[in-house]
Amino acid sequence: MVNGVERPLDLLNQSKGKEILVQLKNEKQLVGTLLAFDIHINIVLSNTRELENGDIKRNIGLTFLRGDTIIYISPSKAS
């Protein structure tokens, strides 16, 4: 166990209410605040922004992402 994380969903649980970076299969990157997720890694983000080359391309707002479109999720350093 590292930093209280034993299973992948533990890390998502710790990230609730925090900003995360999501890489999608279509090569898009999104940053937003994690509101909710389920066992399929479907996630709901608020204040979602699409990134391009590290810069904000557009604001999306409240977003639902299907888990099967996600490549990875990471704590965000973007603003």
Structure description:
- 10% of the residues lie in helices and 53% in strands.
- With 79 residues, the protein is mainly beta.
- The protein has one domain (8-75): SH3 type barrels (Roll).
- Strands 4-3-2-1-5 form a five-stranded antiparallel β-sheet.
- The longest helix has 8 residues, at 8-15.
Quickly describe the structure.
This protein is mostly beta strands and 79 residues long. Helices cover 10% and strands 53% of the residues.
- DSSP summary: helix tally: 1
Following the backbone from N to C, one meets helices and strands in this order, namely HEEEEE
What is the name of the CATH class? Mainly Beta
Overall pLDDT metric:
91
Strand order across the largest sheet: 4-3-2-1-5
What CATH architecture label applies? Roll
Q: What is the count of structural domains?
A: 1
Strand content: over 45%
Shape: globular
CATH topology: SH3 type barrels
Amino- and carboxy-terminal Cα gap: 30 Å
User: Helical amount among residues, as a percent range?
Assistant: 10-25%
Whole-angstrom Rg = 12 Å
| Biggest sheet record | 5 strands, antiparallel
- Structure class: mainly beta
> What ranges have pLDDT less than 50 throughout 5 or more consecutive residues?
none
Task: For the structure shown, list the relevant keywords.
single chain, 79 residues, mainly beta, SH3 type barrels, 5-stranded antiparallel β-sheet, 10% helix
